[in-house]
Design goal:
Elements lengths: L1 H13 L3 E6 L5 E9 L2 H11 L2 E3 L2 E3 L8 H4 L4 E3 L19 E8 L6 E6 L6 H7 L4 H11 L13 E8 L6 E9 L4 E8 L2 E8 L2 E11 L4 H7 L4 H11 L14 E11 L4 E14 L2 E9 L5 E4 L19 E4 L2 E4 L6 E4 L2 E4 L5 E3 L4 E8 L5 E6 L4 E11 L8 E2 L4 E5 L9 E8 L2 E3 L14 H24 L6 E3 L3
C-alpha cells in the first residue's frame, strides 16, 4: 500500500487528480473517490485490458456499469468511459479519456439505536417514555396499543423496557420504532410502529417438562442440605409436605439422614426455570428407617403417594400442620407464660415467624373461623364424627376459610401470628377426640387406603419404572435426560 501511495504522489505532480462524489437524495455525501485522467492512447489500451465485444463487424467497448460499494472501495480499478462507434476505425474514433479509480472513502450507514428504560417507584409507562424523549402522542399510542395484550397498570417498579430508535435516511434524526418488555420468564410484550400507530403482540417461549434426580445427606437441616445438593426450594417444600404425614421434621430428622428425590420442572428450551413440576419419587432415610414413596394416579384420576407395597402414605391427620417451626411448648401441665401459674396446656405450640403458612391437618369441614376468646384468630375443623383439630393465635385467616366450608389436607388455612393471649408469634395446635384434647404427638392417626388387584399390579409396574429412571439419571450424571415439549 505504501508503494501505491508513493506512485500516486508522483503522478499527482504531473497530472491533476479529479474528485468524484456520490450524493444522497438530500444532497448529503455518501461516497467520495479520486480518479486519474489518462491520455487517449493509454485509455484505449486500458480499455483493451478490460475487454472488447464485436458487433456487426465493428469493435464496441463495454458500457460502464454501476459499481457496488465494495468495488468502489478497491484502489486502482480501471473504468473505461468511452465506446467505438459502428463503422469507424480505431484511428478515426474520437477517444475520450479513461478514468482510473485510485481511492475511495465511504461514510458509514446510520444504524438503529437501542436504549433500556427502567420503571421506577411511582412511574407510569407514559411518563417513562416521555422522559426518554418519545413524543407525548407516540407514548399515548403505545399505551393504547398494548391494552389488548397487557394492562399497563400492572407494570411494576424494576421492569425494564428495551426501546429501539430507527435513523432517518440522512442519519441526522432518530425516531421511536419498537419496544420490548418481559412480562414473565415465558412471555414478552412486543410493540412496533405501523404507519401512524403501533401494533402489540405477545411472544411466548416454548416450554418443556424435564426430569431431574438428586440425592442429599442431611448435615444440619433437611431444607439446607437439599438446597445445597441442587434441589429447588419448591421441590423440598413438596417433599416435606408428602412426608409430613409420617415424619415429625422438628424431632425426627438427624445428621446423616438421607433424601432421594426424582422430580419434574417446567422450563424454557434453553433451561430457564418456569415452575416446579411433580415429585415422582422420594425416599427419606430417618434414623435408620427407610420411607420410599411413589406418585400414582388411580383409575378414578385421584393422585396420591404410596409406599412400595401400595399403601397410601396419607393419614387422617398430618404430623405437623406447619413447615419450618419448632415445638416451643409441649402437651401437659406447665406454668402459663402470661397468667403466671401452673395450668394444663392442651395442645402443642409451634414457634414460627409471623406470616408462616398453616395447613389443614386433614380433610374436613370448618366449624369455627374468627375471633374466639383468648385464642385470638381461631379455626376449628371437624374431620369426622369423633375427630377435630384447632388452630389458634393466627395473624389472619385465609380467604374462603369460613364456617361450613370444606378444606383439603395440606391446604393453607391461615398464617402464624400472636393474636389473643400470646407472648409471641406461634401456632397453638390441638387435636380433639370425642370432644377431649389429646396429645398430638402420641395420637395414632388412621392409615390411608391401600391399592388392590389390578390397581396394585399397575402401581408395581410404575414403581419399577421410576426406580430405574432415578438410578439411570443419577448414575449417568445426566439429570436432564428426559424432556417433553409441553406446547405440542
Amino acid at each position: 500500500m505504501s508503494k501505491f501511495i508513493i506512485f500516486i504522489n508522483a503522478v499527482a505532480r504531473y497530472v491533476p487528480l479529479r474528485h468524484r462524489y456520490l450524493l444522497t437524495r438530500n444532497n448529503r455525501l455518501r461516497l467520495r473517490f479520486v480518479v486519474l485522467p489518462l491520455i487517449a492512447g493509454l485509455s484505449f489500451g486500458l480499455a483493451a485490458m478490460v475487454g472488447f465485444s464485436k458487433d456487426s463487424g465493428a469493435v464496441r467497448m463495454p458500457v460502464p456499469m454501476e459499481r457496488s460499494m465494495a468495488q468502489a472501495l478497491q484502489p486502482a480499478v480501471y473504468r473505461p468511459s468511452f465506446s467505438v462507434l459502428d463503422g469507424q476505425s480505431q484511428e478515426q474514433a474520437a477517444l475520450p479519456e479513461a478514468e482510473v479509480v485510485l481511492a475511495a472513502v465511504s461514510a458509514p450507514m446510520p444504524q438503529p439505536k437501542e436504549e433500556h428504560l427502567k420503571i421506577g417507584k411511582g412511574d407510569t409507562l407514559t411518563a417513562v417514555l416521555e422522559k426518554a424523549g418519545i413524543s407525548a402522542s407516540d407514548a399515548y399510542r403505545v399505551v393504547k396499543a398494548m391494552e389488548d395484550d397487557y394492562d399497563p397498570r400492572h407494570i411494576r417498579p424494576g421492569q425494564v423496557l428495551a426501546v429501539r430508535y430507527d435513523p432517518s435516511e440522512d442519519g441526522d434524526d432518530y425516531s421511536f420504532a419498537a419496544m420490548r418488555m418481559d412480562i414473565d420468564p415465558l412471555k414478552t410484550l412486543v410493540l412496533s410502529r405501523q404507519g401512524d400507530g403501533f401494533v402489540s403482540d405477545i411472544e411466548e417461549k416454548e416450554t418443556v417438562r424435564r426430569t431431574y434426580a438428586r440425592d442429599a445427606e442431611i448435615e444440619v437441616s433437611l431444607f439446607g442440605s437439599a438446597a445445597k445438593a441442587g434441589v429447588p426450594n419448591g421441590v423440598i417444600a413438596e417433599a416435606i409436605r408428602i412426608f409430613s404425614w409420617d415424619v415429625d421434621f422438628q424431632r425426627d430428622i438427624r445428621q446423616g439422614d438421607k433424601l432421594e428425590v426424582l422430580y419434574e420442572q417446567i422450563e424454557t428450551e434453553d433451561g430457564e426455570l418456569i415452575k416446579s413440576g411433580d415429585v415422582l419419587y422420594a425416599r427419606l432415610n430417618v434414623n435408620g428407617r427407610d420411607i420410599p414413596v411413589y406418585r400414582y394416579e388411580d383409575k378414578n384420576g385421584d393422585v396420591d403417594y404410596y409406599t412400595a407395597e401400595g399403601r397410601s402414605i396419607r393419614k387422617a391427620l398430618m404430623k405437623t400442620p406447619i413447615d419450618g417451626a419448632r415445638v416451643s411448648s409441649g402437651f401437659g401441665l406447665r406454668k402459663h407464660p402470661v397468667l403466671g401459674y401452673s395450668k394444663m396446656h392442651k395442645g402443642l405450640d409451634f414457634a414460627a415467624p409471623t406470616g408462616t403458612p398453616i395447613y389443614a391437618a386433614g380433610d374436613g369441614t370448618v366449624e369455627k373461623a374468627g375471633r374466639w376468646s383468648s385464642f385470638g384468630n381461631y379455626i376449628r375443623i371437624r374431620h369426622n364424627s369423633s375427630l377435630k383439630t384447632a388452630y389458634a393465635h393466627l395473624n389472619r385467616i385465609e380467604r374462603g376459610v369460613t364456617p361450613g366450608s370444606r378444606v383439603k389436607q395440606g391446604q393453607v388455612i391461615g398464617y402464624v401470628g400472636t393474636t389473643g393471649r400470646s407472648t409471641g408469634p406461634h401456632l397453638h395446635y390441638e387435636v380433639m377426640v370425642n370432644g377431649a384434647q389429646v396429645n398430638p404427638q402420641s395420637h395414632k392417626s388412621p392409615q390411608g387406603k391401600s391399592l388392590t388387584g389390578e390397581q396394585l399390579n399397575a402401581f408395581k409396574v410404575k414403581v419399577g419404572a421410576l426406580d430405574k429412571q432415578y438410578a439411570s439419571l443419577l448414575t449417568d450424571g445426566d439429570d436432564r435426560k428426559t424432556a417433553m415439549n409441553l406446547n405440542q
